[in-house]
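Workshop exercise sheet. Pairs work together: one partner reads the sequence aloud, the other fills in the structure field after running the prediction. Swap roles for the next sheet.
Pair: D.N. / O.F.
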Amino acid sequence: MIDNGEQRAWLRLALTQGVGPRARLDLLSVFGLPAAIFEAGRSALVRVVGEEAADALQSPAPLSAIEHALAWLHADRSRSLLTLADQDYPEPLLQLADPAAVLYLQGRRELLGAPALAIVGSRNATRQGELNARAFAAHLGSCGLAIVSGLARGIDAAAHLGALEADAATIAVLGTGADIAYPASNRALAERIGRDGLLLSEYPLGTPGVASNFPRRNRLIAAIARGVLVVEAAMQSGSLITARLAAELGREVMAIPGSIHSPLARGCHRLIREGARLVESAQDVLQELGMESLQATAAAAAGASATAIRDEALLEAIGFDPVDLDTLSQRTGLDSGALSARLLELELTQDVERLAGNRYQRLGRG
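Structure field:
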């Protein structure tokens, strides 16, 4: 961890107005650490970044913003500043043309080293879309993947919740300052992720949730993950931006198909036409990532778990003949919402098949 003086220098570099990400990277490549940048003469700075940026760097430091950031960091031991000089700066983020000079973190910093999958989609998701995101996140999280998303309403929130419910890792990449809960309706979720997962932002503290921040935020989501799974997306969805960025970075792009009549399926169908992997099960995702062995590991670990026991009871209730949701609800005493979520998880593990007419059938291997 860097000391207080180094933190001040990194924060000053990140908070100096008029010096963009590319200029910061150029300065660091020439001068090394931020302290050397601020000790350099104007002429040396001009040769690297031009006159305007050089003048900005030689202007008085934004002391109030620096002190505010330091106070935020020191108020909670789970908060930290990650800089380009830190050994645990994620290698995938270094592949970006403009990696962030500093990242504000709250939570489990070590999750940055875990294999990760991004799950993204519409803010105005359908109930089924949210169930899909939640179930995929829970299952794939239990396989050892950190679930990355953007803390937005809809699919993002469902993905984070699914991971948390499975006691799995989740990373929320923010389009605001790390001290801002956005949207406000996800404040409790953000607090939970800050305790049990990881909140990450490249934006200065206090940065509000303005529209222009989110496309830039999406490049971090795309970069940090090995692949991106799009659950629901309209044709103009920001999730398609994340998918495009992921493809440009050489990450795997996957999408769940939907009804031809649903506007929220059109973005996914477009991705599939353009070469994204059509995903129907969690196993499809693991195969696309070349991580099939995680499935066996997770299955072995789940064998003695309470979840596995509950699932076995549900499979017994289904039997081997097709059964409709209402009948199954009567047999188990579960309401339709809880039952649908459990059945979706069993679909993902290919223990159950959904048939026409909202009926379900247990598969022979169960």
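Discussion prompt: Residues 1-67 form a domain with the DNA polymerase; domain 1 fold (CATH 1.10.150). What would you look at next?
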